[in-house]
Amino acid sequence: MKILVVEDNPELADNINTYLEKEGVTVSIASSYHQSIEKLVSFEYDVVLLDLMLPDKEGFDLIPYLKETFPSTGILIMSARDGVEDKVKGLDMGADDYLPKPFNLTELFARVRALYRRRSLSGSSEVKLENICIDTDSSLAKVDETTLDLTGKELQLLLFFVVNRKKLISKNAIAEHLWGDYMEDADSYDFVYQHVKNLRKKLKDAGSIPEIKTVYGLGYRFG
C-alpha cells in the first residue's frame, strides 16, 4: 500500500510516517498543496491522508484534482476542524472518510486499511489468485495451506503483482510502488531484481500456480 500524507505539522507527519512504515506501508509526505501536486504528478497513491489547513491553500482544494485525475485513490481527511459543516462538505466533495484531530494512530491505520479494502480489494481483506491467498489484515500470504515466509517488501510486491495480474509491470513502477520518494536516491534497479528473484523462488518452492514472468527489456508479468 502506498500513501501520501498531506500535513503541514512536521511532528504529526513524522509520527504518521513512522507508524505506517512499521506496518509495511510506503509513505510520502507533502507539507503544502503545491508540494502534494508535485508528489501526485510523480507517483500514484492508494490513499491520500489530507489535512485541511495547509499554508498555501485549503485541503478541500485538492479533492477535485484527486477525483478527476486519480478516481481510484481513496481520500481520508484528518483535521482539527471537526464541525459538522466541514465534515459534510468534505464527504460531499468526494472524500471517503473524515477523522477529527487529535486521533489515535491505531484508529487511523484501521480506517486506512478499511478504505484500501473498499477501493482496491472490493471490500475484502483477502486477495486470491488461483492457489495464492493474501490476507491484508494479518499480513500473511499462503500458497494452498503453506504460509510464505516473506519480508514486508516481498509481501507488498506479491500483493502488487496479484492486484495487477496479467498486466505488464515495469521495474520503475515496482520501485516507485515499494520505495516511493526514496527512489530519487537510487542509481540502479538492482534491488528490484533481487526482490523479484527472492519472491519468485519462494513462490516456486511453495508450489504456486501463478508465476512471475520476465518480459525482457520491459519488466514483469504475473499470472
Automatic annotation (TrEMBL):
Source organism, top-level taxon: Bacteria
Record bears the keyword Transcription regulation: yes
CDD domains named among the record's database cross-references: REC_OmpR_PmrA-like (cd17624), trans_reg_C (cd00383)
SUPFAM superfamilies documented for this protein: CheY-like
GO CC term, one of those recorded: protein-DNA complex
GO terms classed as biological process: regulation of DNA-templated transcription
Xref: Pfam families: Response_reg, Trans_reg_C
Domain OmpR/PhoB-type: 124-223
Keyword set includes Phosphoprotein: yes
DNA-binding region of this protein: 124-223
Protein's name according to its UniProt entry: DNA-binding response regulator
